[in-house]
Amino acid sequence: MDGTLVLCSCFGQKHEPLNPFSMQHNTVKNALFAATLLATASAGYAQNTSNHDVNFTIDEAAMVRVVDAAGGPSTTLPFHVQAPSVAGQAFPAIPSQNLYLQYTSVKGASPDNVRQVDVEVVGGAMPAGIQMTITPSLNGTGTLGNGTPVSFAGSAVSGTLITDIQSAYTGDGAGDGALLNYSLNYATQNLDAATSGIITLRYTISNN
Questions:
Q1: What is the DSSP letter of 24?
Q2: CA distance 151 to 119
């Protein structure tokens, strides 16, 4: 070399200016890519839940039975209207007797949401001059309803004993249930021994 200093000039080269829109586009692309990766990772953790249905079926119920004080099946309830011990006296009153009405009710949709208990004579005929009244005293759990006395005499042979029953139960043991008090009312001059006999009562629980 001869020691001559050579300067290289680069002024003739062309440089592309920076494009801000291109830089913004790349930034958006990078953000979308990162979001996609995050969503993919999260999706793996979202599958730790599972759903299923539970189907409930509740039976409606309307059940009734009449039992004695011991909780056993009721039998014939005897009433003996006795003559006086002394001539000239009227036939004396006789004590009332009790049975128990046990029932279970689970209400449904209207009109099955309110029930009642009816009682009727389905066999035999009431003796002449005798009025028999059944008075309920309700006992149990739930909406047991409202009790109303029902009287039988002559052609009056049916009535509604309990109304407005919803979901309730009385129990099924000794002394459980609506107490049914059977009482007689009569006047000696209206009695007729020839009409003595048996009647059959039927209790029915149904929609109001």
A1: H
A2: 10
Scan for tokens 């011991």, then name that residue: 70
3-state helix, strand, coil in the chain (%, to 5): 15, 35, 50
What span, in angstroms and rounded, lies between the C-alpha atoms of 126 and 199? 7
Q: What is the DSSP pairing of strand 130-137 with strand 146-147?
A: unpaired
> In this structure, which long-range contacts are made by residues 75-83, counting pairs with CB atoms below 8 Å and at least 24 apart in sequence?
76/198, 77/182, 79/132, 79/182, 79/184, 81/130, 81/184, 81/186, 81/191
Backbone Cα Rg of the chain: 45
pLDDT tens digits for 73-122?
A: 998 999 999 999 999 999 999 999 999 999 999 999 998 899 999 999 99
Q: Please state whether beta strands 130-137 and 178-186 pair in parallel, antiparallel, or not at all (unpaired).
A: antiparallel
pLDDT for the residue numbered 156: 93
- The residues, ordered by sequence, that sit 6+ positions from 43 with a Cβ below 8 Å of its Cβ are none
Take residue 8 and report the two structure tokens written for it.
């290289």
